[in-house]
Amino acid sequence: MRPIRLPEPPSPTLGVPEIFENGAYSVIRRAVVIGNGFPGSENQSLGLIHALGLADNHVLYRVTRPSGGINEWLRWLPVSLHKILHYIIMRIYSYSRFIVSRGKKLAPLPSENGGNVGLSSVLEADSKQIVNMARESYEKDGPLLVVASGRDTISIASSIKHLASEKVFLVQIQHPRSDLSRFDLVVTPRHDYYALTPQAQEQIPRFIRKWLTPHETPDQHVVLTVGALHQIDFAALHSAASTWHDEFAPLPKPLLVVNVGGPTCRCRYGTELAQQLSAFLTNVLVNSGSVRISFSNRTPKKVSNIIIKELANNPKVYIWDGEEPNPYTGQLAWADAFVVTADSVSMISEACSTGKPVYVMGSERCTWKLADFHKSLRERGVVRPFTGSEDISESWSYPPLNDTAEVARRVHDMLAERGLRVRP
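The chain above was modelled as a monomer; its predicted structure follows.
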C-alpha cells in the first residue's frame, strides 16, 4: 500500500511580461515573516514562504505580548496598549513592595517564561528597522516580500507598507477586520466571514458587532481559503515517507493516526470527550491494523491521562511520549486514515491535504465560525464525523485541500501584474 496519495501541485504560472524580465528591481529574492509567537499562526506564514520557494531566504521577526498573571486577561487589548499597561502595573507593583518592605530584603519579582517580568522580556519586531533594510538593500536585492499572520502583527505590518510602499509587497494572513487597502493581499479562511451571515448577526449584540465582524466584504485583493495554510505539500510528505520508512513501513495496516488538540473558547470539551474518544477508538481497533496517537502542546493532562489509561496497554496502540523526534509528518505520510479533534483548524487542514479519510471528533461541541468551518468541510465531502462504528479499512477520497499552493499562485499573479516575480 502506497503511503502517499497526494498529487503534486502544478507549478505556478508566473506570466511576467518580457519588458520586466531583465529589470533591475523586478525580482523578489527574500522575505520577512512577522509572527506572533503562536506556532499555528506562524506556520501559515512559513507555509506560504515555503510554497513561494523562499524557505531558505527569509528572516523571522516576532511581535510578542507580556504573559503570565493578569496579562492573560489583557490579551484582547491592542498589543501597544497592553505593553503600556503592563509597564505601569509593574512600576506600581515594584513601588508598593518598596513601601511595604522598607529596610527589608525584597523577594524577586514574579518570573515570566523563565525571565524577569517587564518590557525587556518582550521580543519586538521593529518596523523602522525592517523599513531601513528594505530601502538599503532595494537596489541590490529588489523589493521585500513581507508576510504577517495574526491580529498582533497588523499594526507593524501595515506601518512597514506605509513607510516603504514601493519597496515592499505585503501579505497579511488572517482577517484584519478593517481597512483592507493597507495590504497588497489579505489571505483569510471563508469562515472568517461567517459573522456577516444573517444567522451569525442574530447571535451578536449590535453594540459589539464592529469588534467581531469584518467591516468590508471581500474585494479583488482578498484570497479566501477553506482552511489554514501550512507547510505540508507533496515534497514534504515524500521526504517524510522516506525519513520514517523504517518505523512505519512494518506496521500492520490499516494505520489509523489520531491527533488530539485542546479545548478552545469556540470548541469546549474536557474529560468526557476523552472518555468518548477512548471508547470509540476501542471499537475501531477490531478493524485497524495499528493506531498511533499524538497529543499537542495544548492538550490538557486530564484529557491525555484518560486516553493513556484506557489505551496505552493495547498492543495495537502506540502513544507518542512527546520526545523528539516528532513523528507528525511521518504519520501524515504513512497514515491510511485520520481522527482529529475538532478544535484545531491547522491539524484538520494538514490531514485534509493528503486526500486520505479524515474523521473529526467533537465538531458538535464547536460554535460560531469554527462550526461553520466544519460544516463547509462536511458539505465538500472532505471529512466525516467520528462515531466509533467506522471500518478503518474502508477507503474514501476527495479533492485534497490545496490552499497554500493556490494562495502562492495568487501571489505570483499579483506580482506579475506589477512586473515582479519571485526568484529564490
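Residues 7-24, 105-123 have pLDDT under 50 and may be disordered.
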